[in-house]
Amino acid sequence: MTTPAAELVGVTQRFGSFTAVDSIDLRIPRGRLTTLLGPSGCGKTTTLRMLAGYASPTSGRILIDGQDATRTPPEKRDLGMVFQSYALFPHLTVADNVAYGLTMRKVPAPERRRRAGEALELVGLGHLGDRKPQQLSGGQQQRVALARAIAIRPRLLLLDEPLSNLDARLRVQMRAEIRRIQSETGLTVVLVTHDQDEALEMSDEMVLMRAGKVVQSGAPRDVFPAPADRFVAEFLGYENFLTLADAREVAVRPEHLRIVRSDDPQAGRLGDVALGDITLDAVVRDVAYRGVDMLVTLDATDPAGAPVRLVADHRAETGPAPSAGDRVRLVAPQARLALLTPEPTTPEPTTPEPAIEGI
Amino acid sequence: MNQGLRLGRPVAGTLAVAGYVIMIVPILFVVATAFTAGSTLRFPPEGLSLRWFGEALAYSPFMEAVVSSLELAVLATALALVLGVPVTLAIHRGRVPGKGLLEGLFLSPLVVPELVVGLALYQQLMIGLHLDNFTTLLLGHTALLLPYAVRVTGASLALADPALEEAARGLGASPLRAFLTVTLPMLRPGLISAGLLGFVTSFNNVPLSLLLQTRDFRTLPVTMLDYVQQSYDPMVAAASTLVLAATVVVAVVAERTVGFAKIFGGINR
C-alpha cells in the first residue's frame, strides 16, 4: 500500500469556544480527486486551509507525502491552491500570474515562460497570456487560477469551491474540465464543495462532513445509494423518510417512489409489488409541473402508523398524471430503500448496505 | 418621485454652480491682482505687469520659507507613510485586538483642534524636552498627516482581496516577498494619494506652524501671513499665484500618471 498523498491525524481546529474541525482523521489517496462535501460551517474549508498551511491545527498532525508538515508554512508545502475568489494578481498579466510560483522558485526565465505557457495551454487559454486578469470573464479567470496552481507541479492541488462563482452552464462544463485536467496531469486533487451533484460527478472519493466531523466517506457510487444517516440522506437529496414497524428508519428518493392508481385493477397484482417493497395508501395533496416530470406531494401513513408527507416524481410515460385529492397507492421498491443508522452517528467507512429483508 | 427628480436637478445644479463660484471667484481675484502694475492689492488691477512676480521671487524670506515648507512637507509625509502603512497593514490584515480603537486613535488628529495640538507640542516638546522647533514641527505635522496615511492607504487595502497574499504564500513567496510583490503594488495608488494629500496638507498648514515657528525656521504660509500684516502690496498675491500654479502642475502630472479618481478614491482598479 502506497503512502497517501496527504493525511490528517486527529486534527482539531478551535476558534475560541467554537470547534470548526473536531478531531478528524482523513487520508487523501494519491492521484485521485477527493471532495470534501458538506453544508456551510461544516469545517470543510477550514480543513482545506489547514492542509494548505493557512491555518494551524489546534491539535493533531498533518502529513504530506508521509512527512510531518503540521508547522510547515504554506510557501514550503509545494501545494497549488485555487481560491473561491481566484485571487489573481490584478497588477500582473495572465502569463505573469501563472509564472509567479516559478519566479518564486527561481526557475530561469526561458523555462518559466515555457512552463507557464504549457499550463495555460492545458486550460485552453494559451492565447490570453498578455491580458490582465480584469479583462477576462469569470470562467477564464477560473482557468487562469487553475493554471497558476498547476504550473508549479504541486504535490496536491487544492480547490476551494472553485465553481461557485460561475453560472450554471459553465459550472457543469468546468466539472468535466477539472476532471480532464486531473486525469491528464495525474495530480492529487482535493476539492471543497457544498454541491452534492458536483461531488458525485467529480469525485473518486467523497468525504461528507458535518459540524467538524467526517460523517461518511467513500466512492460516490457506494455512498449515494447507502447514506449512513438522515443527515447524509437529506444532503444527497433523499426527501422521504419512513419509520418501519420495527422502528428502523429508511429513506427513499422522490424518483423511486412509484405512484399506482388505487382504482387501477392492475395495481394490486402481485407482479408489480415485489416481496419486501413497501406499499402505502396516500392522498395527493399537490402536483407541480416541472417540464421533465411532475413533483407530486402526498399525505400518507408510514408503516409505524404516523402521518407522513412524501414527495414523488411522476413522469408522463408511466401513466396519466394524478391530481390533487386523488387516492393513490405508493410503492417504495425494496432495492431503493436506504436503511439509516440512528443518530448520533459514528464516523465509519461505509460499506454498501445489504438489501433490507423481512419487512 | 419623478417630480422630486425634476425639481431636484435644477436645485442641485444651482448649488453646484454656486459652490464653484464661491470657491473659484476669490482665487481669480487674487490671480488678477497679482498681475497689476500698481503698488496696492486692489481689484481691478491697475495696468498689467509681471513686476510683482519678480519681486516675490527675489524676496528672500519667501524663498527661504518655500525651501523650509518643502523640506517639512516632504519629510513629514514620508514619516507619516512610514509609520502609517504598518498600522494600516495591522488594521486590515493583522490579528490585532481592538482594531476599531487603533484606527480611531490614528484618525483622531482630524478632530482634535490643531491649535490645541500645537500648544501641547510647544509646552511638552519645545519647553519640556528642549527639542528644536524644526523637530517639533516635523513631529506635529507627521501626527497631522497620519490619518491620511492610515485611512487612504487603508482604502486600497480594504478593496484588495486578502486571499491575494495567501495565494502568493501558497505559490512559494516568503511573507516579505509576498508583501513586496503583491501587497505593495496593491497599496501603490493609496500611497500616492496619501502622499499627495499629506504633502498638500502639510504645505498649507497654518495653525501648527504658527504656534511652533521661530526666527530660524518659518513655513511659507506663516511667512506670507506675517507679510500681509505688515504691508499690503501685491507681492503676496503673486506668491499665492505661484503656489497655485505649482499645485496645478502637480495635479495635472498626477492626473496624467495615475488618474485623479484613483488618487482621491485610493481605489485600486
Short structural description:
Chain A contains 8 helices and 18 strands.
Structure notes:
Chain A has eight helices and 18 strands. With 359 residues, chain A is of the alpha+beta class. The longest helix of chain A has 18 residues, at 168-185. Helices cover 78% and strands 0% of the residues of chain B. In chain B, α3 runs antiparallel to α4 (99-107). The longest helix of chain B has 34 residues, at 60-93. The two termini of chain B are 34 Å apart. The mean pLDDT of chain B is 81. Chain A binds chain B through residues 52-54, 73-75, 77-81, 83-85, 87-91, 100-101, 104-105, 134, 148-149, 152, and chain B through 161, 163-164, 166-174, 177-178, 181-182, 185-186, 268-269.
Give the SSE layout:
The complex is a heterodimer of chains A (359) and B (269).
Chain A: E1 6-15, E2 18-28, E3 33-37, H1 44-52, E4 59-64, E5 67-68, E6 79-82, H2 94-104, H3 109-122, H4 138-151, E7 156-160, H5 168-185, E8 189-193, H6 196-202, E9 205-210, E10 213-218, H7 220-223, H8 230-235, E11 240-243, E12 249-252, E13 258-261, E14 278-289, E15 294-301, E16 307-314, E17 327-332, E18 338-340
Parallel strand pairs in A: 3-8, 3-9, 6-7, 7-8
Antiparallel strand pairs in A: 1-2, 1-4, 4-5, 9-10, 11-12, 12-18, 13-17, 14-15, 14-17, 15-16
Helix pairs in contact in A: 2-3, 2-4, 3-4
Chain B: H1 2-34, H2 51-58, H3 60-93, H4 99-107, H5 114-128, H6 133-159, H7 163-170, H8 175-204, H9 207-212, H10 220-230, H11 235-257, H12 260-265
Helix pairs in contact in B: 1-11, 2-11, 3-4, 3-6, 3-8, 3-10, 5-6, 6-8, 7-8
